[in-house]
Amino acid sequence: MLGLTPRRLIAVLVxxxxxxxxxxxxxxxxxxxxxxxxREIVGFGDSAIGGPFRLTDSQGRERTDADFRGxxxxxxxxxxxxxxxxxxxLQLFADVLDRLGPAADEIAPIFITFDPVxxxxxxxxxxxxxxxxxxxxxxxxxxxxxxxxKAYRVYFRLGSDAATNxxxxxxxxxxxxxxxxxxxxxxxxxxxxxxxxxxxxxxxRL
Length: 206
Description:
By secondary structure, the protein is α+β, with helices and mostly antiparallel strands. The protein has a single domain (28-160, 167-203), classed as 3-Layer(aba) Sandwich (Glutaredoxin). The chain is 29% helix and 21% strand. The protein contains five helices and ten strands, in the order αββββαβαβαββββα. Strands 1-10-9-4-5-6-2-3 form an eight-stranded mixed beta sheet. Strand 9 and strand 10 form a beta hairpin. The radius of gyration is 16 Å and the shape is globular. Residues 9-45 have low confidence and may be disordered.
């Protein structure tokens, strides 16, 4: 599984088993409703994906998109209760960073939660540490999360029982974005994209 180290394999399996225990898996769809199977799509011209944001990191500090200027951003949206695709995406982040070696310093890996009610800074901090301490996890108000999700054109929907079931799931798209040093969209991947392909796409833009 993506060349997992024993420690990361345990983290991924724990996340997957935990998700299964709280209910059936949700549907991970692209915006148009098609299954998220595209490996990589390169953007041409100006893309309307991405934009400014003002969120809170896992240390409780305010962070904006401007904080990451000068680096390539690798961005994933998800939530810590996610039963499968989110931990696999974060594992892909970790594998890519390892394979990049010193060049990983040029990358800002970012995980943005869809679920700010449960994903407090403390919860996010514990979660991403299972994968890589390099990952910046971000949360914020419901309004702030809705705005950044709209800017990145990602789909998500809280479970219909979110108000009554503390273990509700979130349907969401499963896209990993590569953004330029200027914050503009370059290309995107899925959690199924081989790490070597992601590394090659990043190296071609360093």
